[in-house]
Design brief:
The chain has 212 residues and is an alpha/beta fold. It has a single domain, classed as Spore Coat Polysaccharide Biosynthesis Protein SpsA, Chain A. The chain is 38% helix and 16% strand. Strands 3-2-1-4-6-5-7 form a 7-stranded mixed beta sheet, sandwiched between helices. The radius of gyration is 16 Å and the shape is globular. The termini are far apart.
């Protein structure tokens, strides 16, 4: 099964506020863009992925991610993460009405294409499925089979909400790179230990990160 991945990205100026202990205000937009660039590049290298749609209104991010090969979908609802994902999936399915879709976080800078392929292959066994994040509270990926609604419920405690919605939780091991999103300085240190992509590595090299 080939998938279209939908990746939401808020305006870079408002991204990653919880990284304030690690990156200054002027640095965080570039770090958020680097996360997204490495995420999109890894997704496009995944053998299970047909294409990628990034939902964003950020001009710079749109330009840079389109250059990597992503399709840019304007966030016309402008009403938050779940509305952006619903809008993005609708735009994707205008072109591929029966396509398999998955929502993926934009902050997975250590993402490995083959690990993502394992997750998507496992998700293909269910009408809807999700992968919990490394903290076991949130969600990094939510998938919907052809003809199924995505029904995203991202945000606080999204793992519990996606489970309650009937999505199957994928209990895979050895897919750490797909679970490791980055919200805090500790998350970034963990991602760096896993091995991040070149964009994040370049920006992170200019940061003083204790324990790196």
């Amino acid at each position: 099964m080939q998938w279209t991945l939908v990746i939401p990205l808020k305006p870079l100026a408002r991204a990653k506020s919880r990284l304030s202990d690690t990156a200054a205000d002027g640095v965080r937009p570039g770090l958020a863009l680097a996360f997204a660039q490495d995420t999109v590049a890894a997704v496009l290298a995944c053998p299970a992925v047909a294409d990628v749609a990034v939902v964003t209104n950020d001009t710079l991010a749109g330009r840079e991610l389109a250059a990597l090969g992503a399709r840019i979908v304007p966030d016309t609802p402008g009403s938050g993460l779940n509305a952006a994902l619903t809008h993005g999936v609708a735009a994707v399915r205008e072109m591929r009405p029966r396509g398999a879709v998955a929502a993926l976080n934009a902050d997975l800078p250590a993402l490995r294409p083959l690990e993502l392929s394992r997750v998507l292959d496992a998700a293909a066994e269910f009408p809807r499925a999700f992968l919990a994040d490394a903290a076991a509270l949130g969600t990094t990926l939510l998938a919907a089979a052809p003809g199924r609604e995505l029904r995203p419920a991202f945000g606080t405690d999204s793992r519990a909400r996606h489970r309650t919605s009937g999505a199957a939780e994928l209990g895979l091991t050895d897919v750490d790179s797909v679970r490791q999103d980055v919200d805090t300085g500790e998350d970034l240190r963990t991602a760096l230990a896993l091995g991040v992509g070149p964009h994040t590595a370049a920006v992170s090299a200019r940061l003083l990160i204790p324990g790196q």
